[in-house]
Amino acid sequence: MKDNEKEARFKTWLLEHGYTRKVTSDLVSRCTRIERDMNVELSCATSDEASFRLLMISIQCYAVSRFKDTLSARSATGALRSAARKFALFEHGEKVLSYKYSHALTKYPSSGKSGLDSE
After folding, report:
1. Which residue from 19, 74, 92, 107 could staple onto 23, CB 3.0 to 4.6 Å apart?
2. Nearest C-alpha neighbor of 44 from the set 83, 9, 87, 12
3. In degrees to the nearest 10, what's the CA dihedral of 42, 44, 100, 16?
4. Nearest partner of 83 among 58, 56, 61, judged by Cα
5. Can you give the three-state secondary structure of the chain, one letter per residue?
6. What is the pLDDT along the chain (119 residues), one digit of tens a residue?
């Protein structure tokens, strides 16, 4: 995250909400990755429902472009979206609970590799 003070407050918030130090570290790292790799500011990208839904779709596109198989892309999408939702709840409060998610709005491309194939 670009703002060290906000990062520290986010860590404290997560710990106060029952997350372990390891999970807190993972969530902060994922939020940092979103901001860095996708060139977004999470505070803005989660400030309203339309921006939030666009971020959720963008996270999936990022994961699909980064991972060769669908299973890894799905896993990364879920982990990054979860971190972004927790940041949104921290930053904007309970209003984000009413945001609709983008599930089923986008599809994963069929790469022929599901990660579940047996050899």
Report:
1. 19
2. 87
3. 50
4. 56
5. CCCHHHHHHHHHHHHHCCCCHHHHHHHHHHHHHHHHHHCCCHHHHCCCHHHHHHHHHHHHHHHHHHCCCHHHHHHHHHHHHHHHHHHHHHHHHHHHHHCCCCCCCCCCCCCCCCCCCCC
6. 778 999 999 999 999 999 999 999 999 999 999 999 999 999 999 999 999 999 999 999 999 999 989 999 999 999 999 999 999 999 999 998 888 765 555 666 665 554 444 33
